[in-house]
Amino acid sequence: MNIEELKRRLFTMSNSEWMYKKNPDYINPIYGQFDKTEVEGQEVVNFSFDKEKKPPFVNSPYLHEPKLEIVKHSRYSNIPIHVHDYIEMNYVYSGSCVAVIQNKRVPLKMGDVCILDTGVPHTIKEVHDDDIVINFLMNKRYFTTSMLSQLSSNDIMSDFILQAMAKDRKHNRYLLFRSLQMDKLKTLVEYLLCEFYDPSVSANEIINAYVIIIFSELLTNYRNEDGLQAYQGKNQVMEILKYIEEQYKVCSLESVAKYFSFHPNYLSRLIKQKTGKSFKKIVQEQRLNQAEYLIKHSDKSIAEIMTEVGYQNHGFFNNMFKEKYGVNPKEYRRTKMLLH
Question: Where's the HTH araC/xylS-type domain (predicted)?
Fold first, then answer.
């Protein structure tokens, strides 16, 4: 499938879309088969990944990824407010639509990306003839350790964003990336969809690779353009995290609080609330990430690396490193050397 064929497929009205267009008040009775749940006093439909998952393509060599589904949003359909047990990424390929998220109308236009965690009441409205919205449904198990390691670029900015998508905590957040010079993203999505609709023998691996590149492109776009909107207080917290990232070797809760004119107790609560991690945990992770990088990519001694990343106690450093990576620093270096 080429790009022109893809466009024809996406813009061709399906039988269900014609039916929804002719009957604007129609609500598919299938939604009555889903369980209901109450979120903040509001009854919502509870969507399950297993119920929405389609069977593999007939007569296709593509072994369909059981933790990923890609669905073109049905134009003119009325979908009730719902939550789900999977992560959803909505990409506006063409035109516009309105997302209703936590009772708030969020207009989306071509190129915008909205990533929704589980437990977020939402729906998509006002999708008409020229509006194409692609929904990526990702079971949380889809993000394997290997996949996350490819997304993580050894800095706490990536960790912060990835937490909103993958960590087992209160899931009530969403991320909104506005279209900012993102032609490259559209091209990546098009190639992914071509592979999805016309799968090759290696379609599984190719699609997974495109998903990684797309997520990396979103993170890069955020860093370059500050295009991420997620919830109130984002800019403030991001500035704090950037500062910690730069000063992780020597910073303390008190020094960071002083720099931003906060009381230490307030800063501690703010970081915990917005990231799910304590200040101490964030600093430790940054130090250990840098130590791991230096152990793999430098000839410096373990003692030199320990001091460089901000540790003074060799025993404490060994224990923290082993807790994170499963072995002590010397064993870790020896293992990596054997692999190369």
Answer: 238-335
pTM for the whole structure:
0.63
The CATH superfamily of 247-339 is Homeodomain-like (1.10.10.60)
The CATH number of domain 3-229 is 2.40.50.140: no
- The residue assigned the tokens 């998903």 is 211
Could you give the CA distance from residue 291 to residue 143 in angstroms, rounded to a whole number? 25
CA distance 340 to 328: 19
CA angle 148, 93, 61 (to 5 degrees): 60
SS (H, E, C) 21-39: HHCCCCCCHHHHHCEEEEE
Helices 279-297 and 156-166: angle between axes, nearest 10 degrees: 120
Give CA separation, 323 vs 168, 238, 328, in Å.
Answer: 19, 27, 8
Which two tokens mark 75? Answer: 């134009």
Domain with CATH 1.10.10.60 in the chain: 247-339
**pLDDT tens digits, 248-263:** 999 999 999 999 888 9
Comma-separated ranges of CATH 2.60.120.280 domains in the chain: 3-229
Per-residue pLDDT of 154-200, as tens digits, reads 354 455 455 655 444 555 578 788 875 578 899 999 999 999 999 88
